Predict the 3D structure of the following.
Amino acid sequence: MIYKITAVGKGPKDWKSSYGAMKEYKIKLKDETDIIRLNQKASTPAPEVGQELVGSIDFTDEFGPKFNKEFTKPEEKKSNYVDHHEDIKSEWAIGQAIIMLNAGKDLPKLEDVEALASDLYSMVERIGKNELDDAVDVTGDEDIQQSLDDIDF
């Protein structure tokens, strides 16, 4: 539950625990009539009026009502990594198509490059997914050979 601090008592009480130096603050929370104890590490900033706390109030504590903060995991850092795997495969396929089609001649036609690059890209996809079967000649791909056969050199 979320609670809003409406008042903070003067001077915290210093004490030690297995966590190290601690401070106990007396606070008032909106919609609560009791004075609530808030214990936290000495290094934690002091509570302030208007601050919101997430947690619960333990009314059964032997020293009086005590606020139990709810601690949440810190958010995991989000990586700025962008997967360019598909872009790299596309660029490779286009480059290979240009090399295969150019082979010492004039620049190839764009539609020829696109057709062959598409076939090369598809081949990379199939190889990456281990979808090649025993019937496919590993020295060449039938689609690529057909693309080359269709091009007028």
Summary: The radius of gyration is 35 Å.
